[in-house]
Amino acid sequence: MSQTNRNSIRKLTLAAVFMALAIVLTRFLSINVAVFRFGFGMVPVHLAGYLLGPFWGALTGLLADLIGLMINAGGTPHLGITFTTAMHGFLAGMVVYWNKSRLNPLTATVSGVLTSILCSLLLMSFWLSQLW
After folding, report:
1. For residues 122 and 96, what is the distance between their CA atoms, to the nearest angstrom?
2. 101-108: long-range contacts at Cβ-Cβ below 8 A with a sequence spacing of 24 or more?
3. Which helix (H) or strand (E) holds 56?
4. Element (H, E) at 72
5. In terms of residue numbers, what domain contains 35?
6. Confidence at 58, pLDDT banded by 50, 70, 90
7. Of 23, 72, 75, 77, which is the most exposed, with the fewest CB atoms less than 10 Å away?
């Protein structure tokens, strides 16, 4: 087996593990209070972006949200929210890619702040305002 195939299988396996973790943390181990959900479901998506790159981070977020909806629908499916979940992984991977370095605390902080502002604050608020 060539090195490229081994790399692809490794990335696919890690993405599947991060996806499963994201589903469990989001759908089963989060706390729902009125209209808010507190949990750590985005942490595996961010890790997939950091460690595997923007494509795999986005794919992990996208599939985790779609499979999570099939398992445990917490409301009306909305493609904008699914897109925002994929953007979390994509932006996390892009920050590491632009930094051209390994993951360090500064890169993780910048990525967390950037995705929190763009995805959680702006995009998610916009999609939720459409739903309500």
Report:
1. 22
2. 103/50, 103/51, 107/50, 108/50
3. helix 54-71
4. none
5. 3-131
6. very high
7. 75
